[in-house]
Amino acid sequence: CHHVTGECSCPPGWTGHDCKHPCSSGRWGQGCANSCACAGGDGGCDPATGTCSCQPGFTGQHCQ
């Protein structure tokens, strides 16, 4: 927490007043500021790293 404001500084992939909520679907990173760049069936991505989670039948860095 910030020593003056008391505001939580959440690790990548987490958000909310107490950092207990993962980023919503399609978002990732510090402050959930990044959009997932995954294609091919939209398996989504890891909320901390942005690594795509491919649906069956899709492969590649972006499930293309």
From TrEMBL:
Q: What is this protein called?
A: MEG10 protein
Report the PANTHER family cross-referenced here.
EGF-LIKE DOMAIN-CONTAINING PROTEIN, SCAVENGER RECEPTOR CLASS F
- Keyword vocabulary terms for this entry: Disulfide bond, EGF-like domain
Coiled-coil intervals = none
Q: Which GO terms describe its molecular function?
A: scavenger receptor activity
Q: Which InterPro entries match?
A: EGF, LE_dom, MEGF10/SREC1/2-like
Boundaries of every EGF-like domain copy: 1-20
Q: Which pairs are disulfide-linked?
A: C10-C19
